[in-house]
Structure prediction request, 448 residues.
Amino acid sequence: MTVGENLTLLTDLYQLTMAQSYFREQRMENATFSLFIRSYPPNRGYFVSAGLLDVLEYLEDFAFDAPALDYLGSQKLFSDDFLHYLGDLRFTGNVSAIAEGRLFFKDEPIIEITAPIIQAQIVETFVINQIHLQSLIATKASRCVHAAGGRSVVDFALRRTHGTDAGMKVARASYLAGCAGTSNVLAGSRYGIPIVGTMAHSFVMSFDREIEAFRAYAASFPDSAILLIDTYDTVAGAASAVQVAQEMAARGKKLIGVRIDSGDLATQAREVRKIFDEAGFADCKIIGSGGLDEYELAELTRMKAPFDSYGVGTKMGISADAPWTDISYKLVDYQDRPVLKLSAGKNSWPGKKQVFRFRGSNGELQRDLIGLREEKLPGENLLEEVMRNGRLSKTYPSLTQIRGVFEADFASLREDVKAIRDPSEYAVEFSPELRKLRDEITRNIGSS
Prediction:
């Protein structure tokens, strides 16, 4: 998406057809919708909140411009008076949300939007779209960083993300969740993320000899050169890189590192590390890349492969093993009347809510309790008011601050819940008052 582009039509058609019916029936009262994820994808025990800033900016700018109204008019679906109504429509509601960077768990409301029902209904598609992708990627990235065992991880995903907007959001969400930087130059410019890159095999192949490519690159980047050494033979490439490192040292410069992008990474890293150590370049870094995700990173960590950092691309950028979640945006209150859905396998919990978080004496996360918003319960309140009457309630934190929030939360999560495979399930409970309300509404529906 282009910065400043009007995104009001980025919604499903049925949001607008429902809106016209609401308009015809003059159903303009406040409604509260709750966004939550029903279940964990395979091998997931937590989620990382991301995407809220895009939602809030969209809500602040919400307006149907003339081209949008002209297009809707051309579809011959909507009445003139409804289109006139849309021309004056702005988002005037309130939003409570779990802050970006915080950990959350299944069934917990990530966002609750209270607004006149037409407004709250039309924005559903965009809200799900933004929170789903970015929380999915932030969660995946956090798993990769955790699996890397203290080695830094860089986002290399841009070329294989699902479109330009996804590429931008992947860079931001992965940095938020602990990645050290991105190869995406536009994301670096827009979000202030460190940009990282080396060279491609094509650069090496364009020279008659591999060592000539290394010398040319080192001449262009005498203070930041990282050489890709696996184009032909990794061990031979390492030997050539050592020769270039010696030539640079004679000029008072230093080769920063080498990258291995294919083959048996653990074995090759050990061989390359030995070559550089024996040549007196123990401080030359080794970077691993090539189809990595948290499962491969965890195995490399277990094998104590001598990598200093990793570039992670495709599998993180599309969350390859878990590319979707069962995320839902459900009406939970209308006209100050709690409501719920009872569909088999897709039931919901009624009422405006709060999530109360409890910690142990050492600060470790113990359990969460989902209750009604008006309940006064112990524990930390996770849902914060972030928008009132369509405007931000407070200054939004910087990406660096959000990253710090994530790091603090993640450090407090038990290792068995962070596990890359078969994690333990974190305890999420429902308050007695919320259970009582659900039972009462269910009985009333059954007797009507």
User: Anything to note?
Assistant: The domain at 198-288 is CATH 3.20.20.70 (TIM Barrel).
